[in-house]
Design goal:
By secondary structure, the protein is an alpha/beta fold. The protein is built from 15 helices and 18 strands. The protein is elongated.
Length: about 475
C-alpha cells in the first residue's frame, strides 16, 4: 500500500524574492520492490531488468534495479513541493546516472540553488541523488521558473495504491501441477465453447489428458464453432448429458480416468451419477466443495468450504468437510494448514448452534478423529483472517488472524463469503469437489481461463498426493 507521508502535512514554496544562492532541500526514500512495480505500471516501462529477477541475474548488475527515472522523479518531487515548491514551472533537466539503485537502497535526493536570474525568474539548481553509502547515483542540473507569489496549502490527500498481480498464485499452482504427468480426465458433456476450450487449455498446459464424454456430433460441432481442433480418438460417445455422466463415472471405476471435469450439464446431474450407491464413486467420506481464492491484499491463498454441496451439514458431515479441505491444502504443499470454524461469535453458546458444532469439531481434532493442521473455532470471520481484529478481542490462537481454511457453518454463508470476495474484493476463484474416489473439477461460465486451469491444477495435485480411496 502506498500513500502520502503523514508527517508531511503542509506544502509551502519559496518565492523568487526569498531564494538565495546555496539554498537546498531534500527528500529521502527507501526503494522497495513495490516502488519498482508501481513505477512500471505508471510509466509502462516493463524492461525485464527492473521486473524479472531471473533475467536480471544475467545482466551487468546481476540483480533487479530501479528505473533510472525513479530517481529523477524524486528530484522532481523536491522541486515541486519544497524548493522552490508550488508554482514552480519546470523548464529543463539534465541527468547523469552514475550507479544503479536496488531494492533496499536509501536514496537522498537533494537540489541546491546555483544561479538566480531575478529579471526572468529563471533559477538553475544542482541535483544530486546519493545512496546510503554516500555514492552519487544521479547528478545533474535543473532549470525552473521560480514562483513570485507565496503559496502555503495543506498537502492533498493521496489515494492508497495496492498492487496485486492477478493470477500469480494460480500460475504457481499450475506450474506445480505440471511437475507431474498429465492426468487422464473424463470431461463430461463438453458441448459448449467454454467447457471444451477449458479442457483443451488444461491439456495444452500439460495438466490433463482429456477424454471427451458426450454426443460425438455435438462435441465436434462445438469444436468447429469455437474454431479449435481436438483429437477425435479421445471422444467417448454418449447420447445425452445424463448418459455422459454415467459413462464418465464408469470410466473412473474401470481405471481409465483419474478425475472428472464438468462440462455443459447441471451439477446435480453429474453428482447424481457420482453418488449412485450401485455404480457411483462413493467413499467413506461425504463429498464437499472447496474454493481456492487468490484475494488482493491477502498474503496467502484462502480456502472456503463448503459453499456448493452440503446445505446444512451435521457433525459427521462437517468432520468430512474439514478433513477433505485439510487433505487438499496438504496436497498443495502447506505443511500445517490453519483451519477456522466460522460462526458469528468466538464463545460457545447453545443459542447459536454453529458454535456448538465448531466446538465439537475442535474436540474431534484433539481426539485424532480429524488429522492434520491446526483447527480452532468458533471464530467470527474478522477474527479468523485479521490479526488486528483477533488481538483486539484478546484471542490467543495459532489460527486466529492467520487462517488458511475458512469452514462455513452452512452452504448459504459459505457461498456468500466466496461470492463477496470474488465480486467485491476482486478475488480469483478456483474450486473442486473432493470426497469421491477421484477429484471433480466444477467450472462456471463466469470462471476466467486462469481459474479453470487452476481448478484442474488443484485436482491434479490432490490426485497425486491422495491415493484413490476404496469405493464405499
Amino acid at each position: 500500500m502506498f500513500g502520502c507521508d503523514p508527517s508531511f502535512t503542509t506544502i509551502e514554496n519559496r518565492t523568487l524574492d526569498e531564494l538565495q544562492i546555496g539554498d537546498s532541500a531534500e527528500t529521502e526514500r527507501v526503494l522497495t520492490t513495490e516502488d519498482i512495480e508501481l513505477f512500471a505500471v505508471m510509466s509502462g516501462d516493463v524492461n525485464p531488468a527492473h521486473l524479472d529477477a531471473a533475467y536480471a541475474e544475467d545482466s551487468d548488475f546481476h540483480h533487479v534495479i530501479a528505473h533510472g527515472m525513479w530517481g529523477g522523479a524524486l528530484i522532481s518531487a523536491v522541486l515541486g513541493t519544497r524548493l522552490p515548491g508550488p508554482g514552480t514551472i519546470y523548464l529543463g533537466q539534465s541527468l547523469r546516472f552514475r550507479h544503479p539503485v536496488s531494492p533496499g537502497d536509501r536514496i537522498v535526493a537533494r537540489v541546491t540553488v546555483r544561479e538566480i536570474d531575478r529579471t526572468s525568474a529563471k533559477v538553475a539548481l544542482d541535483c544530486l541523488c546519493q545512496n546510503q553509502r554516500g555514492e552519487p547515483v544521479i547528478t545533474g542540473e535543473a532549470l525552473v521558473l521560480a514562483p513570485r507569489e507565496k503559496v502555503s496549502r495543506p498537502v492533498t490527500a493521496l489515494p492508497d495504491v495496492r498492487l496485486h498481480k492477478a493470477g500469480a498464485r494460480f500460475a504457481a499452482l499450475i506450474q506445480q501441477a505440471r511437475a507431474f504427468p498429465p492426468m487422464t480426465t473424463a470431461v463430461v458433456h463438453p458441448c459448449d465453447d467454454l467447457s471444451l476450450i477449458g479442457a483443451l487449455q488444461a491439456e495444452a498446459a500439460g495438466i490433463i489428458a482429456p477424454l471427451y464424454v458426450g454426443p460425438r456430433a455435438k462435441i465436434l460441432a462445438t469444436a468447429r464453432a469455437a474454431n479449435v481442433t481436438l483429437d477425435e480418438s479421445r471422444i467417448v460417445d454418449a447420447p445425452h448429458s445424463h448418459a455422459a455422466a454415467e459413462l464418465a463415472v464408469a470410466l473412473v471405476r474401470e481405471g481409465r480416468a483419474a478425475a472428472l471435469m464438468k462440462g455443459k450439464l447441471h451439477t446435480d446431474e453429474l453428482l447424481s451419477a457420482v453418488l449412485s450407491r450401485e455404480t457411483g464413486l462413493r467413499t467413506e467420506r461425504r463429498l464437499s466443495h472447496v474454493f481456492a481464492l487468490d484475494v488482493p491484499d491477502v498474503d496467502r491463498m484462502l480456502f472456503i468450504t463448503d459453499a456448493a454441496i452440503n446445505i446444512a451439514p451435521d457433525l459427521e458431515t462437517m468432520r468430512d468437510i474439514v478433513q477433505n479441505a485439510i487433505d487438499l491444502v496438504l496436497a498443495l504443499g502447506l505443511a500445517e494448514p490453519r483451519v477456522a470454524l466460522l460462526s458469528a461469535v468466538e464463545t460457545v453458546t447453545g443459542k447459536i448452534p454453529s458454535t456448538l458444532l465448531a466446538a465439537s469439531i475442535c474436540k474431534m481434532h484433539d481426539r485424532g478423529q480429524i488429522v492434520g493442521g491446526l483447527v480452532d473455532g468458533p471464530l467470527a470471520y474478522d477474527n479468523a483472517i485479521s490479526l488486528e481484529a483477533a488481538a483486539a478481542k484478546g484471542i490467543t490462537s495459532g489460527v486466529a488472524g492467520r487462517a488458511d481454511i475458512l469452514v462455513a457453518p452452512n452452504l448459504e454463508s459459505g457461498n456468500m463469503i466466496a461470492k463477496q470476495l470474488i465480486h467485491l474484493a476482486g478475488a480469483e476463484a478456483a474450486g473442486i469437489v473432493i470426497g469421491a474416489r477421484v477429484p471433480i473439477v466444477l467450472t462456471s461460465r463466469a470462471d476466467s481461463p486462469a481459474a479453470r486451469l487452476a481448478s484442474a491444477a488443484l485436482a491434479r495435485l490432490h490426485a497425486e498426493a491422495a491415493p484413490r480411496k476404496p469405493l464405499a
